[in-house]
Amino acid sequence: MKKECCNLNEVIQEFYNFLKAYVLGKVKNKQVAEDIVQEVMIKLVEAHQKSPQVDNIKAWLFQVSRNTIFDYFKKHNIEANFDNDWKIESNDSNENSKVIVADYIIPMIEMLPSTYAIALKMSDIDNIPQKDIATKLGLGLSATKMRIQRARIKLKELFIECCDIEYDKNGAFAGCVIKKHCEPLHQVTKNLESKSSS
After folding, report:
1. pLDDT: is 124 or 136 the higher one?
2. Contacts 24+ apart (CB under 8 A), 171-178
3. φ, ψ (nearest 5 deg) of residue 76
4. pTM exceeding the 0.70 threshold for the entire prediction
5. What pLDDT, in 10s, does the model give residues 20-39?
6. Do 159 and 82 form a contact (C-beta atoms < 8 A)?
7. Domain coordinates of the chain in residue numbers?
């Protein structure tokens, strides 16, 4: 596994907003999400002081984020749910190519027709209230809700079209392998691997 020299400023700049979106998706509270990400970054600084080399900085950050969220949930008696932290891999797979599906969500949304992509990104990535989306898009609230719902369906169809889904022995989602014809996602994998090794 490749070693990565951990430039803290670059790591924070690259991962801060992505981690915040991930944490916010779990805790559903902007202030709590901000506090948790700050705590994760403090842990990063402390870990860096002990050892400047990290095998996989992204995996480390997300594992620490998961643990910190879990601690928050436990402290506040909230049931933890990490069912959506799926794994995905490319056809030339190895352990290093496995990443969370969240890495692929935005690129896959951008593969949708812009009518659906814009509404879905505003709703599910930027967490903008649907009534505000309706105003920005010049639509009625019911039309906005319908567009977002249809966009989610189309995203799911695209996911099925691009990935061979794998299930565990209990029938739960275990991961997926990107199909050969889905070049945009293979390009995403190459970009992610390039970032993680640089």
Report:
1. 136
2. 173/86, 174/87, 175/86, 175/87, 175/88, 175/89, 175/98, 176/86, 176/88, 176/89, 177/88, 177/89, 177/90, 177/91, 177/93, 178/88, 178/89, 178/90, 178/91
3. -105, 15
4. no
5. 887 887 888 889 989 998 99
6. no
7. 8-86, 101-196
Q: Look at residues 63, 45, 46, 50 and name the one whose alpha carbon lies nearest to residue 8.
A: 45
CATH classification of 8-86 is 3.30.565, yes or no? no
**Which of 1.10.10.10, 3.40.50.970, 3.30.470.20, 3.40.50.261 is the CATH number of 101-196?**
1.10.10.10
Quick: pLDDT tens for 129-140. 999 999 999 999
Single-letter amino acid, residue 67: N
